[in-house]
Design brief:
single chain; Rossmann fold; 2 domains; two-stranded antiparallel ribbon
Length: 213
């Protein structure tokens, strides 16, 4: 199986979004130069990315068929296979993720949430339920949910990760700003908002400094 870099994997949803926009606008085909110009990638990068996942070759002067690209990307990204997940930590971020409608289009179904605060437990307006954290081991197995989304404070994240793994979780999507210690067979993706903001701020300061020269 071909190895894909993290940056490459992060580009594929952007391709998919753009291709769906073109399809909705009545386009049937798209060329690598057009994609590169729109998304800010090099033509060589675009060609390599699409060759890695496409089942149909591109045609000279016409490019690649948009519907084929959309189908190939949705299959590659797993959007056609529904994956079940639960959220631990139903504060502002956790609640927002539980209500995010686009997850369904991406093949992710958030079944329920867990929180240690009794005030946050119970049924939400969207019909999903928030359970006490103590029920995680039993319900994770019963629901056959493979992904646990962690949106608790960093001080509680490792304990939540340990409990989730012991309960049978195969993957963790971690939004807590902390490095989690996990076994090698656990798939983990960290979303560090603080790091992302730091990069954004640094690049903004660089741009402002250049403009003031």
């Amino acid at each position: 199986m071909e190895a894909f870099s993290k940056n490459q994997l992060e580009r594929y949803p952007l391709y998919l979004k753009y291709f769906k926009e073109l399809k909705a606008a009545g386009e049937d085909n798209v060329s690598s130069p057009k994609i590169a110009q729109k998304l800010g990638y090099s033509e060589e990068q675009v060609r390599k990315d699409l060759q890695a996942i496409s089942t149909e070759p591109g045609l000279p002067k016409k490019g690649r068929n948009l519907q084929n690209l959309i189908d190939d990307l949705e299959t590659f990204l797993g959007y056609k296979d529904v994956t079940s997940a639960v959220i631990v930590g139903v504060g502002h971020l956790g609640a927002a993720l539980m209500n995010f409608p686009a997850f369904k289009e991406m093949g992710l179904k958030i079944l329920c949430g867990f929180d240690s605060d009794p005030a946050k437990q119970g049924k939400l307006p969207n019909g999903k339920e928030v359970f006490p954290i103590e029920k995680l081991p039993n319900l994770l197995t019963r629901l056959n949910a493979h992904i646990v989304i962690i949106t608790v404070p960093s001080s509680a994240a490792q304990a939540v990760a340990d409990k989730a793994i012991a309960s049978g979780a195969k993957a963790l999507w971690n939004f807590a700003p902390i490095h989690l210690e996990t076994p090698s067979d656990i798939v983990i993706e960290n979303v560090n908002l603080a790091s992302s903001l730091a990069v954004l701020s640094h690049r903004l300061n660089q741009q402002i400094a250049e403009e003031e020269k």
